Amino acid sequence: EVRLVESGGGVVQPGGSLTLSCAASGFKFDHYAMHWFRQVPGRSLEWVSLITGDGGTTYNEDSLKGRFTISRDNSEKSLFLQMNTLRTEDTAFYFCAKDYCSTTNCYIDYWGQGTLVTVSS
Amino acid sequence: IVLTQSPGTLSLSPGERATLSCRASQTVNGNYLAWYGHKPGQGPRLLIYGASTRATGIPDRISGSGSGTDFTLTISRVEPEDLAVYYCHQYGSSPPVTFGQGTRLEIQ
Percent of chain A at pLDDT above 90? Predict the structure, then answer.
């Protein structure tokens, strides 16, 4: 059974930093790209960042302007999101998710349950 | 590519048919069009990929159809457990993933 469990959310002051973690199990972790998404309550899902299976290539949402960094430890089957210079508008639920791409389809096939990040003074 | 979903909210009684629309601002390769259901307190769940293929464990009363710019998610007979927000999703290039704004399904 595929499981993705996020942790590390909490309350942080504007300008602060936080690192989210995602523990993966039930699949060959290093075979798949992984994503971070976020969702402000009441709004749609927003893509944040992507990392390839070997960790060699990353992509970030342009508006984040380098404040967020995705990484992974394949030996520990863990995904991370380092968030710096946090702003109140970064307040959201953050989800890690598993990518699936074949020769014919690409989609996100599994999601974690999310962790809440609140940026507030 | 912008995905626009309608209606914003759908309120139905158990046993009724739900028809959810997703319209793209440009032609979408159906192989990269998926639907998700998102229940409160949970992560989203993959329902349909490739526009019309049900994901593992999804009942056959849930189906997807469409091509080009118009896609549809249909729940033939809604049940109380279908209470959720439903999102269409396109796997593209930049950004790699975009979502519609969602349709909230309420069960009366």
Answer: 89
To the nearest whole angstrom, how far is the Cα of A97 from the nearest Cα of chain B?
Answer: 9
Distance CA B55, CA A46 (A): 22
Of the partner residues A35, A45, A109, the one whose CB lies closest to the CB of residue B99: A45
Residue type, B65: S
For chain A, positions 68-87, list CB contacts with chain B under 8 A. Answer: none
User: Which residue on chain B is closest to A38 by alpha carbon?
Assistant: B43
CB count in 10 Å sphere of residue A1: 6
- For each successive 10 residues of chain B (108 residues), what is the average pLDDT? 94 97 93 94 95 95 96 96 95 82 95
Closest-CA distance, B77 to chain A, in angstroms, reads 24
Report the residue from B49, B95, B102 with minimal CB separation from A107: B49
d(CA B87, CA B82): 13
φ, ψ of residue A116 in degrees (nearest 5): -90, 130
Name the pairing type of β-strands A10-12 and A45-51. unpaired
Q: CA B87, B90, B91 angle in degrees (round to 5)?
A: 130
- Residue A51, token pair as written in the block: 């990392």
- What's the N-to-C CA distance of chain A in angstroms? 40
